[in-house]
Amino acid sequence: MSLIDEDEALIAAALNGSAYAWEKLVKRYESKIYNHGLRLMGNSSDAMDLMQEVFLGVYRNLHRFRGDAKFSSWIFRIAHNKAVDLHRRKRLLSTQTRIGDQDETDILESIPGESNLEPDKLVGDQLRNKEIIAMLGKIPIEQRLIVELKIFQSQTFEQIADMQDISENTAKTRFYTALKKLKVVSEENNVLS
Amino acid sequence: MSCPKTEHLLQEYFSDDLAPLAKDEMENHLHSCEHCSTELETLIMAQSSLNEWQDQRVPHWDRGMELFRREHRVSNSGFSFWNKLQWVPTAASFAMLAILLLNVNVVSSDEGVSISFGGNANQDSSLNSRLLAFQQEQEEAIDALVQRIEDRQDSNNIELLQAVMEQTQQTTAENLDIIYAFFEQQRLQDLEDMRVGYQELVDSDYATIRSLQQIAQFVSYQGDIR
Predict the structure, then answer these.
(1) Residue A106, in any domain of the structure
(2) What is the CATH number of the domain that holds A182?
(3) Which of A14, A38, A172 sits opposite B56 (nearest CB)?
(4) Is ipTM beyond 0.90?
(5) CB contact under 8 A, A34 and B56
(6) What is the pLDDT of residues B54-79, one digit of tens each?
(7) For residue B42, what pLDDT is reported?
(8) Which of A85, A102, A166, B159 has the largest CB neighbor count within 10 A?
(9) In a domain, A122, yes or no
(10) Which has the higher per-residue pLDDT, B141 or A185?
(11) Considering only alpha carbons, which residue of chain B is nearest residue A135?
(12) What pLDDT does B77 receive?
């Protein structure tokens, strides 16, 4: 059974009231959505908010999922829209962005206690992630969204253009501009370190 | 040293579907243009630095399970066979309550089954006739029973009266004997008392005579002296 078929089977079971199927479906995608949120929102608290909103949206609209597209595409489209909404709401609340200026305890708090990974490697990964979040925090949300979709979600510019309701060329330009900006930030970081 | 082609070229480099011919042209240009190749290299480095991202573990959360369970318990009653039948005990209770409160009568006869509500409901005619027959039968049986009890009671009364009378006669005779014996005893005692009285009287008479004799002797003695 392929992953897609399994997704559809889980969706059907969840629609029939199977809590087990729903939990399995959530478990399958929660990590991707949470990390997606971390990169876009810049901190675990907002990433959790985003993830919960995404799965609430998925739950509310599960009966509308037709199976025309892959479930993963569908859920990331919801995640994308929720991220845009959440970012807009946050910007209205506070003009200062929290991207790259996170709570210092975040790294230690997010280390899972039962992990089998070596602590040094884990902290190293967390630091690298923090650097990436800091870099992404230097570019506008529109560009950050395209970088996220292109690099982390491996979507085509056509898909990105469709999702963001922009032209394909605009998507390409934004991506290129974002990369140039990231290059500058990366160079600054290297100089500083 | 800048290159006018850089921006357009590098934008196209990251395109998804670059035509083979355009790709060859790009490769040729990148080989010949140091500015573009350096620029591309730094962009790829920036891109690869992002690819170092390591997925972080999701903090604990309930995965919407509470919401899911709550909503499906309320809205999706067809979850399992037993859930479907959960209303049965309640419905049965209400049905029993209704039967009790409305005093429902269910009558099964040869003509079928009839159901009526309330205590004063019109009864089936056949049921009425059967009830009348039953009542008559019962009355006759009771009358016969009463007659038998009366007869038995009469005979019992006579026997009892006889027994009582016999007992009374006997007792009366015994009582008369006792009274007679008492009277006899009293009579004997009176006779004895009378005999004693007479004896005492006789004795006192003797004493009186003796006294008189003594007085006479004294008187004659005194006369002699004078």
Answers:
(1) no
(2) 1.10.10.10
(3) A38
(4) no
(5) yes
(6) 998 888 888 888 888 887 775 544 44
(7) 87
(8) A102
(9) no
(10) B141
(11) B50
(12) 46
Report the residue of B54, B70, B73, B84 to disrupt the A interface, i.e. the one with the largest count of A CBs within 10 Å.
Answer: B54
Name the average pLDDT for chain A. 83
- Residue A111 lies inside a defined structural domain of this protein: no
Contact map slice: A 74-133 vs B, CB within 8 A: 110, 112, 115, 125-126, 128-129, 131-132
Domain shared by A94 and A141, yes or no: no
Q: Nearest C-alpha of chain B: how many angstroms from A87?
A: 20
The 3-class secondary structure across chain B, one letter per residue, is CCCCCHHHHHHHHCCCCCCHHHHHHHHHHHHHCHHHHHHHHHHHHHHHHHCCCCCCCCCCCCCCHHHHHHHHHHHCHHHCHHHHCCHHHHHHHHHHHHHHHHCCEEEEECCEEEEECCCCCCCCHHHHHHHHHHHHHHHHHHHHHHHHHHHHHHHHHHHHHHHHHHHHHHHHHHHHHHHHHHHHHHHHHHHHHHHHHHHHHHHHHHHHHHHHHHHHHHHHHHHHHC
Amino acid B124: pLDDT = 67
